[in-house]
Every structure is written in C-alpha cells, then in structure tokens.
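Entry 14. Two folds queued back to back today. First construct below, sequence then structure tokens.
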Amino acid sequence: MSRVAIVTGGGTGIGRAAALALHRDGCRVVIAGRRPEPLEEVRGRIGSDCAVLSGDIREPDVADALIDLALERFRRIDVLVNNAGGQFLSPAEEISPNGWAAVRRLNLDAPWYLTQQVAKRWMIEHGGGRIISIVLCPTRGIPGMAHSSAARAGTEALARVLSVEWGKYDIGVVCVAPGWIDTEGVRGYDLDLEMVAAQVPMRRLGSAAEVGDLIAYLASPAAGYITGQTIAIDGGVDLTSSGWEPPQPKG
C-alpha cells in the first residue's frame, strides 16, 4: 500500500519540492497552504495522488481538517512534513508582542498541534511514521530572526523529546535546517543574493529540490533508524562565521 504524506506550506518553495519528491518516491500527498492557486498548480502536476486544503495552519480547526482529509481520502498517514513557516526581519528590540506571538504561533504552536494530533489519531495506534520539521540553523545567531529562531528552536527541542517518548511506537522525529535556499521567500528579502552566495563555502545558494530530496530520504524506510537529529543542508554555512548584517533600527 502506498504511503501517505502531509506537507504544510506545500504550494511553494521547499514544501512544493518536498511534495513532488515524496510523490516521485511513491507517496500520495496531502498539501496545505493559505493560497489555493499554488496548491492547485502542485495538484495539477501530481494528479489524483494529491489532495489539497487551503487555510491557515495556525488555526487548530484547519489542522484537524487536514488530518480528516488525509484519512478520508487516503485512509492513512505515514509522513508529516511541518514546512509551513515564516517571519519578518526586525531588530530584536523592535519586535512587538503581537509580532512575536504571530511568528511563534506559525513556527512552534502550529507544528506542535499538528504533530500531536497526527500521532494521537494515527501513528501511535497504526505502526508509527515519520515526522519532519523545517527549522533554522540551531547553532548560529541569525540577526533579525530572534522571534523565528526562538520558535524554531522550540520545534527542534520538541523533536528530541518526542523521538525519545515516541520511539517505542516506531515514530521517527527529525528536523531539517536549510541554509540559503533559492526560493520565492528568500527572493522576497531585500538582499544581494550574489553576495550572499559568495559567503557560502560552496559558493552558491541551494535549491528547493535539494531540500525536497533530503526530506524524501528522511521520510523513507532507508532512514528509519534516524531520529532526534537536526540535519543541516546549507553548503557549509554552519561551519563558518559568515552571515548577514544585523538589521538597523528604523528612523
């Protein structure tokens, strides 16, 4: 029986690449995102093995509906990819309580709730599965990303705890930490990407397809004994002191 994977943020960038790579490797996929048009484009490429749900994954009822869709359409959930995320660049001293809460909800609260519910409603009682969450580099300070770094560090810490608690159910929980990846999101920042690439030891940005392939591998039976780890895919940036300049206060 074909495996089934849920991918949040599956309409663009890394999420789209992950959905395509998982389907290539034999999974049926259920993708979620806030904008229906990109989701439909991915479904058009995959066909009947793809189901889509448009909504804000920060809302528990959307997460519940996503699980319902996977179980009603494909009758199982073998893989969860917590890819949906995002933030805005800001000096730490200028992040408002509302801004902090919004980023935390998207990058920590939402993946936690979906992870918990997928485990409770399917994986624990039906032979396990794989949970893969996208995080930021866990060992470097990234200026302008205090809110997102803190939230995603929480997701990484959860992966370590859950890998111990849920190992007995054959649930593997891992994180992927992409570096500079050439996606729509990265191109939306006001950055000189040629200069950024020059700071990467491999002298280029990564591609979404490379991250998608890594996610597909970690979701596969070949990676079944890997759990509790964070895998960096960054061209060696984590090994250097290079990085972007801190954002400047406004005014």
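Second construct, same run, same settings:
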Amino acid sequence: MTLTPETRDDILRSIPSLRAFAISLTGNYDQADDLVQEALVRGFSHIDQFQPGTNVQAWLFTILRNQFHTGFRKRRREVEDPDGMIAARLAVLPEQGKRIEVEELKVALTKIPDDQREALLLVGAQGFSYEDAAGICGVPVGTVKSRISRARQRLAELLAIDDSEDMGSDRVLKAAMQD
C-alpha cells in the first residue's frame, strides 16, 4: 500500500496522543519524543504493512509500544558507564602477540636438550614440584633443579629475554621462565 492523503492525515493527528502515551511509558519528554519519532519512521517505512480500513492510530501505538519494550530490554542488559571505568576493566588484550610468543617458545623449546625441556615443562608448564618432577624423571631433585636452571638460561638466550619484563603476557612462558 502507498501512503494515501487520508492515512497521512490520520498519522499526523495521532502524534499528540502518541507523544502522551510515550511520556507515560518513559517518564521523560526527550525520550518520549525520540520514541515517537522512531515509531513514526518505522510506521512510514513499513506503511505497506498497514491494512487499509483499520485504525492507523492503534497500529502506530502498537509500533511505539513495541519500540519501547525492545529498547527497555536492551537497556536492562546495558550497564551505565559514563566515565568508561567498567569498560576499561573488561577490555581484552589482543591475542596476536600471545600466539607469536607461543610459537617462538615452541621453536626455542625444540632447541634445548630433551632432559632439560622435560624438567622445565614438568615444573614450569605442568606445575609439578621439583620433588615430583624428580620422581617422574627418576633423577635426584638437584639434577632437576640444575636442568631447569640451564633450560631457563638457554631459553632466555634463544628468546632474547633480558629480564621478566621482556617475557610479554603469556602465562605459560612466564611460568616456564620463573623460579
């Protein structure tokens, strides 16, 4: 259906009633005006869905009411954050760097002796104690400690790590490299 002059006049006559209804829903004049405007835009853009001979005001009230409830559901899930403090805490760091760090660590791990890599991964990555790692490897605790120390030194060389600040944000790398 196209917009007829009669339908257009009925829509224009409905605006004060729509505004009063919107004010009763929102309790705020500015929000009510925005809601009426949204309802009118939606009504005009979907005029082909209006059934001639039915009540155009009731149709617009339905659109307005649905717009209000849709907005209400959206706002209910939103958190007001005028100073950005909440958003700042929720920010997620980019993950590309972590992937690169992990790939570099994998390559570097292949370049250290098997016994050192095994000890380092058991303690640093898997979280076993030195004693448990020694039991798993079948060697004294002191041997595990020296293997881990040598492995960390070699990884630091391979990854060009001078201090803990150079390790980036990857928790596995940090766990493997720290005592």
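Quick look at the second one. Confidence is low (pLDDT under 50) at residues 164-172. The radius of gyration is 33 Å.
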